[in-house]
Amino acid sequence: MKARFLTRIRLWSCAVLMATFSLTQAQDAITGDAAKGYDLFEANCTACHQVDGVLIGPEFRGVVQRVNEEAGLGREWLHAWIKDNKALRESGDAYANKIFAQYNNTEMLAFPSLSEQDIDDLLAYSQDPDGGKTAFEAAKAEAKAKADAEKAAAKQGGGGANSGVIAIGFVVIAVLLLWLLVRVNALVKATTLAELNPLQEKEATSFSEMFEKYKKVGGITIALFAFFALFNVYWGLMGIGVDKGYEPEQPIYFSHKIHADIQGIDCQYCHSSAKYGKVSGIPSTNTCMNCHKTIKEYKGDYFEEDLVASGKFADGDAVKAFYTGEIQKMYKAIGWNPETNKYDGPQKPIEWVRIHNMPDFVYFSHAQHVVAGEKAILKAIKEGTIPNAKELNIGGGDQTCFACHGRVDQMDEVKMANDFTMGWCIECHRTTEVDMDNEYNKEYYAELHEKLKKQYGDATKITVDAIGGLECAKCHY
Ligand code: HEC
Ligand code: HEC
Ligand code: HEC
Ligand code: HEC
Ligand code: HEC
Ligand code: HEC
């Protein structure tokens, strides 16, 4: 009997316990948006955490459950930790101090700027990383589709001046046609009258007069039609391939400012084929690893203040942690293990998004410009005959690249600095004086040079167009 009573009590207390447990669970339930959490995690945490596996800090997937299982702690503790883990440790919190020791006393950043909702979103993401990511990308794709649609609409609206002109054109044409119709009607009446009444002969002779007059009107109408048609074709063509400012997001956040300017690495150390070939090429990961086998974190002073000002990062340290995270991301992408200093994953190339890309029917050679044309282009910068020459005139061989690509050394993310249209190529060829002393030109254009000198005197400037820089076949296959 007594034993039975005891089991009963045990059962009851179990039930009560379970009830309170599920109550605390309910109280602790995290109602966040995993998609937003994904975005926050990518921006703030990937420098040290990854979803699966330990990076600098612990694995993020299932962190809520883990903390609960290991120490019976929940939402409140996680909030306190993420906001300011140092304060929590200093308050003597046992678990906080335990994990700190477990991770070799590596300090996690404090995130005082994250709101309660932000943290809930992050925690929701940790509970469903895959769903969060998918939802975020779906939302982003939707937003992009919407923005594209709006842009297309704006473009049509923006072409308002253009379509306005066309509309007016059509009205003018319509009025002319109407007038023509009325006059032809009158004419038909007049001729029939003339046939019936020989007295109206005078009207009939004026028929040929009128015909002359209407021929003019018809001519004007046709000319107007042709003008508007041509205008539209021209407008359409001018719009092709103008991508100035194009700045796609890259798989690894690689800063030219940090590498080319602050570290002073020569453009051609990485873009080494510019000298020899048609393309400059993007460096292989082997080139990166020449340095990054040993440079495992970012310890510089520089950081992009914009990224803090825009609210994407809490402060300079967070941006720097992000840079470090990008180096880690590169290791992961190419299968390098920084712990063992060995490639232990598949060695894959990084898939950079191409920014400059001429259509297939255009032939462009870097060597022609960077080697044969170097002196000519440097001179053009000095003499200010190409656009933006003033801001490019800073000395050094990299200037040749800047003439077309702008101050890449000052860009964190590369963007297109010029239009890269046919008009842009030709403009430079028209104004840039060829360097007649380089081996290539000496050999091929000696004769031409002599002829021009004789014709115009020694001081003649020979621009690229004079050596064929405007010939269609030089640039088109
Ligand atoms: C500078 C590196 C760094 C950054 C950035 C960072 N963490 Fe941490 N995090 C750590 C380290 C290291 C630990 C392990 C404890 C320690 O050493 O302090 C940790 C521990 C944690 C823990 C406890 C995990 C456990 O298993 O007990 C949570 C939760 C956490 N981080 C969340 C975040 C979130 C969310 C972000 C982004 C908002 C973030 N961390 C950004 C380094 C970082
Ligand atoms: C440490 C290696 C490195 C150095 C040094 C470097 N680059 Fe780059 N460059 C890259 C990588 C990697 C990319 C591809 C990622 C990107 O677009 O940011 C790139 C991309 C570019 C692009 C865009 C290519 C495209 O997709 O159309 C241009 C233009 C460029 N670099 C010019 C320069 C110039 C000019 C300099 C010298 C001031 C320079 N680079 C120095 C590594 C380097
Ligand atoms: C000649 C040496 C050298 C080469 C080659 C090099 N880096 Fe770096 N990289 C550095 C140095 C130095 C830093 C800054 C470290 C610091 O200031 O603590 C850096 C920083 C970085 C960073 C963090 C800052 C940022 O730009 O976001 C990333 C990411 C990075 N490198 C990626 C790459 C990639 C990708 C390549 C190959 C295309 C590459 N690096 C090639 C020397 C190099
Ligand atoms: C006369 C203008 C001009 C100059 C000077 C120039 N580029 Fe380019 N660059 C281009 C054009 C045009 C493209 C696009 C080529 C294509 O799509 O075929 C390009 C493309 C690139 C690319 C993308 C990859 C590729 O090769 O297509 C890189 C990287 C690049 N340039 C780097 C450089 C560097 C580094 C220098 C200086 C050594 C330089 N460029 C000088 C016009 C120029
Ligand atoms: C910054 C000025 C500049 C720009 C922009 C420029 N070029 Fe040139 N280009 C030159 C110079 C200078 C030469 C003469 C090189 C030499 O001495 O052989 C040249 C020569 C050439 C030649 C050889 C002409 C010949 O008769 O041998 C071709 C082809 C060419 N450019 C194509 C292009 C294309 C395509 C573009 C646009 C994508 C372009 N260039 C943009 C400066 C420029
Ligand atoms: C200096 C180099 C150069 C010369 C010379 C040149 N082109 Fe082009 N052309 C280009 C480039 C670069 C493009 C691609 C522009 C773009 O993508 O926006 C282009 C594009 C075109 C297009 C496509 C329409 C467009 O605007 O994109 C046609 C058609 C064309 N060229 C015809 C000609 C003809 C005809 C000649 C001779 C009278 C000629 N080109 C001479 C560089 C040149």
Backbone shape: flat
Strand order of the largest sheet: 1-2
Number of domains: 4
- The percent range for helix content is 55-70%
Q: What is the percentage of strand-forming residues?
A: under 5%
Report the sheet with the most strands, covering strand number, pairing sense and barrel closure: 2 strands, antiparallel
Number of helices: 22
Order of helices and strands: HHHHHHHHHHHHHHHEEHHHHHHH
User: Based on DSSP secondary structure assignment, what is the total number of beta strands?
Assistant: 2
The gyration radius over C-alpha positions equals 36 Å
Ligands, ions, cofactors:
heme C
Low-confidence stretches: 11-27, 157-161, 194-204
Query: What structural category characterises the helix and strand content?
Result: mainly alpha
N- to C-terminal separation? 101 Å
How much is the average pLDDT? 80
Characterization of the model:
This protein is mainly alpha-helical and 477 residues long. The chain has 4 domains: 31-132, Cytochrome Bc1 Complex, Chain D, domain 2; 161-238; 286-351, no CATH class; 366-475, no CATH class. 61% of the residues lie in helices and 1% in strands. It contains 22 helices and 2 strands. It has helices spanning 2-28, 34-44, 63-71, 75-83, 85-90, 94-102, 116-127, 129-158, 160-196, 201-238, 256-262, 267-270, 285-292, 305-309, 316-334, 366-372, 374-383, 389-392, 399-405, 422-431, 439-456, 472-475, and strands at 336-337, 342-343. The protein has a two-stranded antiparallel sheet. A hairpin with a 4-residue loop joins strand 1 (336-337) and strand 2. Helix 2 (34-44) packs across helix 7 (116-127), helix 4 crosses helix 7 (116-127) and helix 9 (160-196) packs antiparallel against helix 10. The protein is flat and about 105 Å long. The model is unreliable at 11-27, 157-161 and 194-204 (pLDDT under 50). One heme C is lined by residues 267-268, 271, 274, 279-282, 356-358, 364, 366, 369-370, 377, 400-401, 403-405, 420. One heme C is lined by residues 250, 254, 256, 259-260, 265, 267, 269-271, 282-283, 352, 354-356, 398, 401, 405, 408-409, 414.
